[in-house]
């Protein structure tokens, strides 16, 4: 019988399946961080249970960590407590921890792939919604709640019902200044922040196949922002080349065996999806969000949609979102001054993102009215950026290169955007208060963020690229 990629991986991991009940699904890799693991470890302690497969569990500290000097004591009490608990719990339960100061420390969704832990065909979970990122390798990867974290600790399995499948095809070539972040913001704007609810999404088509692994991660990362349970992309030569030689990737005979299996991981030509959507890459412009959910996005030259054009029952919440943002409906954002630019988060903090930004700002300087934070996704990304001299470029541009962590993606650490201020952010959520109380977030690509950094206002990056080339 023909199968989708999700079905192939799912079926290979079902321990037990019974009509009318969720499947018992085997989990290959369990990633953990300091926010959603403490209660789960407590649960084990209360039951007198060990972590069943500690070698398949990997921990890092990311959400609560300082990004100016991660070796200084954490000022905020809850943050410090959570990071300390992670250290203590990992030691007690025999789990490998890439904690503060470790050369592998970083955002959990950045370190898995870069260490060769994230592999095609795996099932991977983490108590974190953006676990969907790892799907870029052709893995079934999804976020779970704290009680499920405990379930996986205790059994290396999870009770899960098989998801519905959706295929999203993007074909054709992207225009100048348009990248993976624009693709995903475009899709979410088209189908809404609830458009993928209940589905596991497979991204396909020539525009997706042409993307690097890092760009594919940006796409899969934001699957959750349209309500999907996860997103994935069939592995191909780009995937295999990325993985080969990484710290924990299979090597020698193991590599050959793994590769032979990975090559079987694609949706069969006649496999049936529950839903199929198709988009044309040429229709996608640099994107920006104007509202308070990731579906409220538009091409940067467009006008914010009119309140009158919204469905009756949504008019009020739509207007509320625009009020929060301080924007008028049916207006353009071009030229609107911004206060902060944040380049980071598990969506866009990998080395290619930093290279793209550095390449763009070389010989330019940030505008006086903006504060620019560049927060690498991991210690390895930070080190690589320094090896390549990107730190010097950022410094000359007046950008601050900080240490790895979730940082201003969410106000759980010291990096907060002040109330009322506008931040062009490469992260994935623009919810009210997400980056700090009453902070206003505009989601965009690293290039669009960099353009705002140098002009101090919302800018169509294509205009600046024209100038450079012309
Ligand atoms: C803190 C964590 C549970 C949360 C998530 O699940 O996504 C965070 O990473 C986020 O991005 O909002
Ligand atoms: S970077 Fe942001 S989205 Fe990613 S895990 Fe951290 S808080 Fe969540």
From TrEMBL:
Binding site for [4Fe-4S] cluster: 346, 406, 409
HAMAP family reported in the protein's UniProt record: LeuC_type1
Entries under PROSITE patterns matching the protein: ACONITASE_1, ACONITASE_2
Source organism (scientific name): Pedobacter ginsenosidimutans
Enzyme class: lyase
InterPro entries documented for this protein: 3-IsopropMal_deHydase_lsu, Acnase/IPM_dHydase_lsu_aba_1/3, Acoase/IPM_deHydtase_lsu_aba, Aconitase_4Fe-4S_BS, Aconitase_4Fe-4S_dom, IPM_dehydratase_rel_enz, IPMI_cat
Underlying gene: leuC
Cofactor note: Binds 1 [4Fe-4S] cluster per subunit.
Keywords per UniProt: 4Fe-4S, Amino-acid biosynthesis, Branched-chain amino acid biosynthesis, Iron, Iron-sulfur, Isomerase, Leucine biosynthesis, Lyase, Metal-binding
Catalytic reaction list: (2R,3S)-3-isopropylmalate = (2S)-2-isopropylmalate
Family that this chain belongs to: Belongs to the aconitase/IPM isomerase family. LeuC type 1 subfamily.
A biological process from GO: L-leucine biosynthetic process
Keyword Mitochondrion attached: no
Obligatory cofactor(s): [4Fe-4S] cluster
Pathway recorded for this protein: Amino-acid biosynthesis; L-leucine biosynthesis; L-leucine from 3-methyl-2-oxobutanoate: step 2/4
Description of how the protein assembles with itself and partners: Heterodimer of LeuC and LeuD.
Function of the protein: Catalyzes the isomerization between 2-isopropylmalate and 3-isopropylmalate, via the formation of 2-isopropylmaleate.
Protein name according to UniProt: 3-isopropylmalate dehydratase large subunit
A molecular function GO annotation: metal ion binding
Signal sequence annotation: none
EC number of this enzyme: 4.2.1.33
Aconitase/3-isopropylmalate dehydratase large subunit alpha/beta/alpha domain segment(s): 7-456
């Amino acid at each position: 019988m023909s199968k989708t990629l999700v079905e192939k991986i799912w079926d290979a991991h079902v321990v037990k399946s019974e009509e009318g009940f969720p499947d018992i699904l085997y989990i290959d890799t369990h990633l953990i961080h300091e926010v959603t693991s403490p209660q789960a470890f407590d649960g084990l302690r209360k039951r007198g249970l060990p972590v069943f497969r500690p070698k398949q569990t990997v921990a890092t500290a990311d959400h609560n960590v300082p990004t100016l000097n991660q070796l200084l004591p954490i000022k905020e009490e809850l943050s410090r407590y959570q990071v300390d608990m992670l250290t203590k719990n990992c030691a007690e339960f025999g789990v490998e921890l890439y904690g503060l100061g470790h050369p592998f420390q970083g955002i959990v969704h950045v370190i898995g792939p870069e260490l060769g832990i994230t592999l095609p065909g795996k099932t991977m979970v983490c108590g974190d919604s953006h676990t969907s990122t790892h799907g870029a390798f052709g893995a079934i990867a999804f976020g779970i709640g704290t009680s499920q974290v405990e379930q996986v600790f205790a059994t290396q399995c999870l009770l899960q019902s098989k998801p519905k499948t959706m295929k999203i095809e993007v074909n054709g070539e992207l225009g100048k200044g348009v990248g993976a972040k624009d693709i995903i913001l475009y899709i979410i704007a088209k189908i809404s922040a609830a458009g993928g609810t209940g589905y596991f999404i497979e991204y396909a088509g020539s525009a997706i196949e042409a993307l690097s692994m890092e760009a594919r991660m940006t796409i899969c990362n934001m699957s959750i922002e349209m309500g999907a349970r996860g997103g994935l992309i069939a592995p191909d030569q780009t995937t295999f080349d990325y993985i080969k030689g990484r710290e924990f990737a299979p090597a020698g005979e193991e590599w050959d065996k793994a590769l032979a299996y990975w090559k079987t991981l694609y949706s069969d030509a006649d496999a049936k999806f529950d839903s199929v959507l198709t988009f044309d890459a040429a229709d996608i412009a640099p994107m920006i969000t104007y509202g308070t959910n990731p579906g409220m996005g538009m091409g940067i030259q467009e006008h914010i949609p009119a309140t009158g054009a919204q469905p009756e029952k949504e008019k009020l919440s739509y207007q509320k979102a625009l009020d929060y943002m301080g924007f008028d409906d049916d207006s353009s954002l071009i030229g609107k001054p911004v206060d902060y630019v944040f380049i980071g988060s598990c969506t866009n903090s990998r080395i290619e993102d930093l290279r793209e930004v550095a390449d763009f700002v070389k010989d330019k300087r940030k505008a006086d009215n903006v504060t620019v934070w560049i927060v690498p996704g991991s210690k390895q990304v930070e080190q690589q950026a320094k090896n390549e001299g990107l730190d010097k470029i950022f410094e000359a541009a007046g950008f601050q290169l900080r240490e790895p962590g979730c940082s201003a993606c969410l106000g759980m650490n010291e990096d907060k955007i002040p109330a009322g201020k506008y931040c062009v952010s490469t992260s994935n959520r623009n919810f009210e208060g997400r980056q700090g109380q009453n902070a206003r977030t505009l989601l965009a690509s690293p290039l669009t963020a960099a353009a705002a950094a140098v002009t101090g206002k919302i800018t169509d990056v294509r205009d600046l690229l024209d100038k450079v080339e012309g």
